[in-house]
Amino acid sequence: MTRKAKKAGRFALLLSLLLCLSACSTAPQEPPAPEEKLISVGFSQVGTESDWRVANTASMESALSAENGYRLDLRYAQQKQEQQIVDLYKFINQGVDYIVLAPTTERGWETILSRVRDSGIPVIIVDRMIEIEDESLFTCWVGSDFRQEGKTAVEWMEKTFADQPLNIIHLQGNIGSSAQIGRTEGLDEGLKAHDNWTLAFRQSGDFTQAKGQELVEEVIEKGLLDRSGNTINVIYSENDNMSYGAIDALKKAGLTPGKDVYIISFDAASTALRLVLKGEIAYDVECNPLHGPRVKNLIEQLKEGKTPPKYTYVEETAFSQDNLTEELISTRGY
Ligand code: AHR
User: Fold this and answer.
1) Could you tell me if 155 and 285 are in contact, meaning their C-beta atoms sit under 8 angstroms apart?
2) What is the pLDDT of residues 279-305, one digit of tens each?
3) Which pLDDT score, from 0 to 100, does residue 22 have?
4) Which of 107, 120, 123, 192 is the most interior residue, by most CB within 10 Å?
C-alpha cells in the first residue's frame, strides 16, 4: 500500500470514529422498555386437575397476554387453599395492579382478602364463588351458576327416566368448592323429590380422572350397582374427567356405559361431547371455562374508572345426542 493510501485509510477511520461519538452524544433517550407499561395481574389458579381447568388457564393466558398489554403472573395451587393464600400475599408484596382469584373452596377468605383490600389492589373472583359476609372484600365476580347446572341435570333425569327407579352413584368434586356444592344441591333436591331414587354411593373424586376411576372400581367391587334389571344405574359425575375415569372402570369390568349404566356429566369439554355422540355419556351440562376475555373486560372497565356489575353469570347449556353434532363440537372453543 502507498503512503498516500495509508493516510487516506487513517483519515476514514478517524472520521467514522468522530461520527459515531457525535451520534452517541446526540442520540434521543431510549423509550422505556415495553415491559414497564404492561398492566400486571396476579392470577391464583386452582390447579391443573381437569380439562376444564386447562382450557380456563389457556383462555386467561391468551386474553391477558403481553400483546394485549398485560404481564400475567400465573400461580397454580394444586387445589389447596393454603397455597392460594401464600400466593395472594406474594401478589401484595409484588404490588401487582390487579389480583384474579379462582378460589378452590368458598370459605376461609376473610383474613387474606382484608389484607388485599388494605393494599388497595382490586380483586376479581373468577369461576367459583366465595362465601363472605363483607362483600367489599372483593371487587367483582364472573363465573357459572353451579346450582342451576345441578338443576338442569336433575330435570333431564326426571324427563328421561320418568317414574323408573334409579340407583345413583354420586362422584363429587372437591368438597367445599362452589362447583361441588351447587351440583350436589341439585341432586339432593332430586333425591328429596323422588322416593324411588336411591343414593347408593357418594364420595369425592376431587375432579380428577384417576380418582373417578378408583371410586367406580370400588363401587363395582362392593357390588353397589343394581343388577336386578328393574332399576336404572346412574353415575352422577360432577365433572368430565371423573366421567372418563368412570368409563374406564366400567369397561374394565365388562360393563357398557350408556347401556348398563347411564353417566350424567358436567363441563362439556370436547372430548366428553364426543363420548356423548358415541353414547357413553348420556348427558353433559356445560360449564364454560372461557373466562379470559370476560376478566380482561372487567379490568378494562375498572381501569376506565367504571364500576362493573358485582356478579356476572355466564350463560350455559347442556348436551345429549338430541342436540349435538360433530360440527357443533368443532366450533366450540374447548
Ligand atoms: O369450577 C369449575 C370446575 O372445576 C369444573 O367443573 C371442573 O372440571 C374443574 O376442575
Assistant:
1) no
2) 999 999 999 999 999 999 999 999 999
3) 46
4) 123
Query: What is the spatial distance between Cα 282 and Cα 59, in angstroms, rounded to a whole number?
Result: 28
Domains of the chain and any CATH numbers: 39-143+289-303 (3.40.50.2300), 146-287+320-330 (3.40.50.2300)
Atom of ligand 1 nearest to the CA of 269: 8
How many angstroms separate the alpha carbon of residue 123 from the centre of ligand 1? 21
Helix (H, G, I), strand (E, B) or coil at 43: strand
CA distance 137 to 148: 25
Centre of ligand 1 to C-alpha 322, Å, is 24
Give nearest CA residue, ligand 1 atom 2. Answer: 179
Residue nearest to atom 3 of ligand 1 (CA): 179
CA dihedral for 85, 90, 94, 99, sign (positive or negative): negative
Q: Tens of pLDDT along 18-47? A: 444 444 444 555 555 555 689 999 999 999
Instruction: With a cut of 70, list the residues of the chain below it in pLDDT.
Output: 1-36
And the C-alpha cell for 69? 398489554
Residues 221-230: pLDDT tens digits?
A: 999 999 999 9
